[in-house]
Write a structure and sequence with these properties.
single chain; 607 residues; alpha/beta; Rossmann fold; Helicase, Ruva Protein, domain 3; 51% helix; binds 6-O-phosphono-beta-D-fructofuranose; GKRP_SIS_2; SIS_dom; carbohydrate metabolism
Length: 607
Amino acid sequence: MPGDQEKASRARAAQEWEFPGYESPLPVTEKSNPLSLDIDRAGPQQIVHVLQECDAEVFQGDLQPDAEFKRLYSESVIQILVDVADRVKTILREPDDSLIVLSGCGTSGRIAFLLANTFNRMLGWHQQKPVYSYIIAGGDKALLTSQEAPEDSPSLGAQVLKEACVGRKHVFFIGISCGLSAPFVAGQLDFCLNNLDMLTPVLIGFNPAHTARNEPIQGWPHTFRQVTERMLDLQRAQRAFVLNPVVGPEAISGSSRMKGGTATKVLLESVLLLGHRAAHSHVEINRQAVLDCIRDYEKVHEMTYCKTNELASVVGKAGTSLQKEGHVYYLGWKTLGIMGIIDASECVPTFGADFQDIRGFMYGGFSEMNNKEGNLSSLGPQFCIDHKDFVSTILPLIGENDTVIFIFTVDDDFGDVEKLAGQVKKKTSNVQAICHEYKGHCFPVNINNIFDSKVLKISWTPSDADDDFFMRLQWELSTKWMLNGISTGAHILKGKVYKNYMIDLKVTNSKLYRRAIGILQRFTGCQWTQGERALLRVLYGAEELTKEMATADVSRHTQAATTSDRVVPTALVVLQTGCSVSQAQAQLRECSVVRDAVETCLTSGRH
Ligand code: F6P
C-alpha cells in the first residue's frame, strides 16, 4: 500500500487535470487521468490500486467552495437530484398515460436497459404496471455487441423516441451521454424541447456544459452544446434538467464505460429509488435523503476495494489467459449475469478485442434478459448468451489457458452453481468465483471447497430494513467495478493499452474518429490534417488518397473502419517512420504486443 508521501503526491496528481490548461481544450471525459499514466506497465496489484483511486474520484467532494467543477456532492447537483426524484414520484403516483424513458448509446444505453427493467420489476411488486422503457442506439443488438454508427444520428434518436411516446400524455425522458456528445441523444433532447407540453427532458453526462461537444453534426442544424444550453435556460423553470457533475478523467482515457457508467448508475438509481420510496412508502425526498443514498454507494466502493488482493489475483489470471491466446468467460446469474455480458461486450470496441476473448453468459439467457426484441440468438454466436450455449459450444473446448469466472449471490440457486462449476472444473483448474452474501444469509456450504479457495466473496451488511432491492443494486455496482477491473486489467497485461490510452480502439463513429486523430497528434506531435490523412490511408488501405476518399463524409470513413484492424497503431507507425501502410502493417504483424510495437516505434523515431 502507498505511504503518506506517495498518497500526497497522488492527491496532487489527481487535481492536476483540474488546472485550466491541462490537456485543454479536451473535455474532462476525454482527458487522460494523471493517476493512471503508467498503468500500461503496472502489474495486477498496481492496476487494481490505480483503478480504485480513479473510481474514488467519482465520490470526491468539492475541493474548494468556488471550485470550477461541480461534483456529485455539490449543492447544485444534489438539488437537481431532489427535483428529478420529485418528478419521478409524481409520475409514479399518476402513472396512467405516463412513461419514463431512459436512453443512451453503448454503455449508457445498456445501463438504461438494466435500470428500466429493474424498476419495472419493482413496480410489479407494488401491483403497478410498467412505467419505464429503455432506448439504446442500434436496438437490442447493441445490448450485446458494439453498434457505434447509430450513435451519430440525431434523427434516428428522435424517431425512436417519438415512437416510444405514442399514446402517452406525459413522458419524462432521461438521456444519457457521458461525454455530452452523442448526436443520437442530442436528437432526442431536441425532440423533447420542441414538445415540452408532453415531454420533460433530463440530460445526464459528466462534463461541464460549456465543454459539451460543439462540432457540427452531419445533416443537422444544432450541436450537442447548443441543445445543452437550451436545456439550461429551461432548467430555471424546471422544464428541463441537466445533471452533469464531473467525476474526473477515466483510468483508460475516454473509456466512459468505466466511471461514466458507474456514475450514471449511481445518479439514476438514486433518483429512481427516492422517487419510488416517496411514491410507495411516503418517504420524503430531500437533500439528506439524496446524500444518504450516494453515501451508501460510496460505501460500496470501499467494500469492493477491500478485496484488492483477491481482485488482483483474478486480474492476473485473466491477463495470463489473454496473453496465452486463451479466453475469459463470465458465468453469471440474474442481473449479475447481465453485468458480465455488458462488460464482455465492451471489450471489442475499447481494446480492439475479438468477441471470443472475453464472453459473458447468464443463467436462463434471453428469458431472463427481458429485452424488448426477445431472443436474438439466431443472429450469430455473439448473441448466444445462455449458460446452455456455454455448455454446448464452449465447455468442450475449455482448457487450462482459459479463465472461467462464476458470478452469483446467496439468493441464486446454489445447486445450479455447484453443478456447472463441477463440469467446468473437469476442463480447467482456473475457475474463479465472485459472490455476494449478506448478514443472516450465508451460503449453505463452504464455497471455498467448490472453487478451491479462488473466491472473491463480499459479505454485506444492509444499512436498514431498506430492502433486498437496494442490496442487489449495490451488488451490481460492486460487480461492475470488479469486472471492469478484470477486463481492463487483462487487456493491459495483454499489451492493448499504451500509457493510459486505448491504442487499438475501433474507429466506428465520429467521436471515435476524432479521438483516434487526437491520439495520433498526442504521440507524434503531428498536425490534425496530417493525422487525419494517415488515419484515412490506413482505413482505406491506400498509399495515396483519392479525392473521393479525402472528401468523403466521416460516416463513410467510419464505415470503412468496421472491417479494419489495428488502425491507430498502423497510422502511428506510418506517421512516425514515414513508411507505407503495407510496411507498417507488416511491422505490426511481427509484433504480437501492440503496446510494445507502438513504444518501439515512438522511441526509435525520436533518435
Ligand atoms: O461510441 C462508443 C462509445 O464511446 C461507447 O463506448 C460508449 O459507451 C458510448 O460511446 C456512449 O458514450 P456517451 O455516453 O458519452 O454518449
